[in-house]
Each structure stands twice: as C-alpha cells, then as structure tokens.
Amino acid sequence: MSERQVGLMAFLKGSSDPKDRMPGCATYDHHGGVCLLDRPCLVEQRERCQHFERAVLPTAADIGQLQNITFAYERHIGKRVDIKVSNEVVKDDRICPACKTALLPPRRRLCNRCQKAKRRVSHRANYAASRPSRSMSDS
Known about the structure:
Number of strands: 4
Distance between the termini: 65 Å
Order of helices and strands: HEEHHEEH
C-alpha cells in the first residue's frame, strides 16, 4: 500500500472520517474558518502557533506524515522547529543541497532525483573522456 501524501492545510483542518486518523486542530472552526481562541488562525497567517506545534503536529506521526507535514509547516512559516513526539525530539531533517526542496533520508548526500541527475552527468563526462578524440588532420 502506498503512503498517502497530505498537505499542511488539509492536515490542519482535519477530516471528519475516523478512518483517515487525521483529526486536525481541535481549535479550528470549520464553519467560520478561524481559530476558536479568539484570534485568526496563526498557521494560515504564516506565523508560528504553539498549540499547533505541541498538540497537533505530533499527531502526524500517527499517519506516517511527521516529516512531510513538519517540512511543509517550516516552509509555510519560514522558520525551523523541533517537534517533541513521546519524549523524543524529532530534529530537523536535512534538505537536499542541490534542489533545496527534498528531504534527505539518513546517510544520504542528495535526494533520489538529484543523485540520478548527478550520476547521469558523471557517466556522460566519463564516457566523453574515454572516447578517442577525432582529429581532422589524418595525414
């Protein structure tokens, strides 16, 4: 079964279907589209929300989306955050230095796409270097 991708706003608003295991933020009013804490939703305004970071974001681990949702949240607010899940701090994941968008798995220097592109360039360069040069002066 393939892993389902969930966007930040879909995760924030949640789902009413219990099978999705995605309750969303308890203080988000679906009818008014605002926060119930007598203020606009900070996440929607691209600001840090302590309630979202402490109570909502760690639940992304339940659906296997902690890294993706955390990365989307960090990009959305423009800041790095450390998320605490069951007494363990999930440190920021590394981002691919070539494309600056993909998360890197442990012990990897590049994401799959950039690694493939780099390998292709390297193979072409090695092949070109190993070919005998053709000179126009065959005297």
